[in-house]
């Protein structure tokens, strides 16, 4: 049976073709359909899945935890087919695709739902609904449970300490966002861009029920409230709030790449994060790595200057 999927490959932002994990012919009996006899008697559905991902970390480490367990995936797909009935196989395909996007590292999923016993009076070979869903779908959806997030704050204009404190206050007042841990404040040289003053940097550990996109929008609103303007790349700024990580979500979306694509090499992010959470780890192209190890290799670590006399709390 043909997969029925005519979608092409997917490339990463760097232009590299993503790898694929293919699972074909998962067959399970379900009671999906608009007719009473379909709900009563059921029929077999056949599912094909293509996951677009990066298998390099798993291949290098020979570690199953760094890739998708296709046995478990097959079970998940079959359980969805056997589960709550729906009228349309379009809806069934959507449910399966969203489940396929859950494993870390999966960037997109192609799903084909075959209904070879569809109630059609004419002679036919198969009925197939094929869809592609990218991880941006997960960026748009609010999580069912609070998700841990890491936010990096930086400023090198104006009253830097008061700006950082004001940003923390605004984060605390953001509905759907809970501020859990504040890092110490560190001072660093600017990285890239034109000549400019030193930065004060900090990291805030939070949990959120906001979608990733809504969290980004909230951070952008706070930045704008402090006069942030994006006129010069890596130029001076009143306030920068970067979403470093959002749970274990991985995204190559142009609007919000997760984890932050340069966090693994930026000491001004890694140092305060490590101070806030000594066990912190970050998903990189090489797999999950300890922040303490990443900090040791960060090229800008020599510019770090601790500022223990500064605190993000107004009342301290």
From TrEMBL:
Pathway annotation: Cofactor biosynthesis; tetrahydrofolate biosynthesis; 2-amino-4-hydroxy-6-hydroxymethyl-7,8-dihydropteridine diphosphate from 7,8-dihydroneopterin triphosphate: step 4/4; Cofactor biosynthesis; tetrahydrofolate biosynthesis; 2-amino-4-hydroxy-6-hydroxymethyl-7,8-dihydropteridine diphosphate from 7,8-dihydroneopterin triphosphate: step 3/4
Function: Catalyzes the conversion of 7,8-dihydroneopterin to 6-hydroxymethyl-7,8-dihydropterin.
Alphabetical keyword list: ATP-binding, Folate biosynthesis, Kinase, Lyase, Nucleotide-binding, Transferase
SMART domains per the UniProt record, alphabetical: FolB
UniProt family annotation: Belongs to the DHNA family. In the N-terminal section; belongs to the DHNA family.
Reactions accelerated catalytically: 6-hydroxymethyl-7,8-dihydropterin + ATP = (7,8-dihydropterin-6-yl)methyl diphosphate + AMP + H(+); 7,8-dihydroneopterin = 6-hydroxymethyl-7,8-dihydropterin + glycolaldehyde
GO molecular function, one term: 2-amino-4-hydroxy-6-hydroxymethyldihydropteridine diphosphokinase activity
EC number: 4.1.2.25, 2.7.6.3
Lineage of producing organism: Bacteria, Bacillati, Actinomycetota, Actinomycetes, Kineosporiales
Pfam families, per database record: FolB, HPPK
Residue intervals of the 7,8-dihydro-6-hydroxymethylpterin-pyrophosphokinase domain: 233-244
Keyword Amino-acid biosynthesis: no
PANTHER family: 2-AMINO-4-HYDROXY-6-HYDROXYMETHYLDIHYDROPTERIDINE PYROPHOSPHOKINASE (PTHR43071)
Protein name: Bifunctional folate synthesis protein
Family matches, as SUPFAM superfamilies: 6-hydroxymethyl-7,8-dihydropterin pyrophosphokinase, HPPK, Tetrahydrobiopterin biosynthesis enzymes-like
């Amino acid at each position: 049976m043909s997969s029925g999927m005519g979608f092409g490959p997917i490339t990463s932002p760097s232009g590299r073709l993503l790898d694929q994990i293919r699972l074909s012919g998962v067959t399970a009996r379900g009671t999906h359909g608009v007719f009473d006899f379909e709900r009563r008697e059921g029929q077999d559905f056949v599912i094909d899945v293509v996951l677009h991902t990066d298998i390099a970390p798993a291949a290098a480490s020979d570690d199953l935890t760094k890739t998708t367990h296709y046995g478990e995936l097959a079970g998940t797909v079959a359980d969805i087919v056997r589960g709550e009935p729906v009228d349309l196989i379009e809806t069934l395909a959507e449910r399966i695709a969203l489940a396929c996007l859950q494993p870390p590292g999966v960037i997109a999923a192609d799903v084909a739902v075959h209904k070879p016993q569809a109630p059609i009076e004419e002679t036919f070979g198969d009925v197939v609904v094929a869809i592609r869903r990218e991880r941006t779908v997960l960026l748009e959806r609010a999580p069912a449970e609070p998700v841990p997030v890491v936010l990096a704050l930086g400023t090198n204009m104006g009253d830097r300490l008061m700006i950082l404190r004001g940003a923390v206050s605004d984060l605390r007042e953001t509905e759907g966002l809970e501020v859990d841990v504040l890092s110490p404040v560190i001072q660093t040289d600017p990285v890239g861009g034109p000549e400019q003053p030193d930065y004060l940097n900090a990291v805030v550990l939070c949990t959120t029920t906001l979608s990733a996109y809504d969290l980004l929008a909230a951070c952008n609103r706070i930045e704008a409230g402090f006069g942030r303007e994006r006129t010069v790349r890596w130029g001076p700024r009143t306030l920068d709030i970067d979403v470093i990580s959002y749970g274990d979500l991985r995204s190559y979306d142009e609007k919000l790449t997760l984890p932050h694509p340069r966090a693994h090499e930026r000491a001004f992010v890694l140092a305060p994060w490590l101070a806030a959470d000594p066990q912190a780890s970050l998903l990189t192209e090489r797999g999950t790595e300890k922040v303490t190890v990443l900090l040791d290799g960060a090229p800008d670590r020599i510019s770090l200057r601790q500022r223990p006399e500064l605190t993000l709390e107004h009342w301290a």
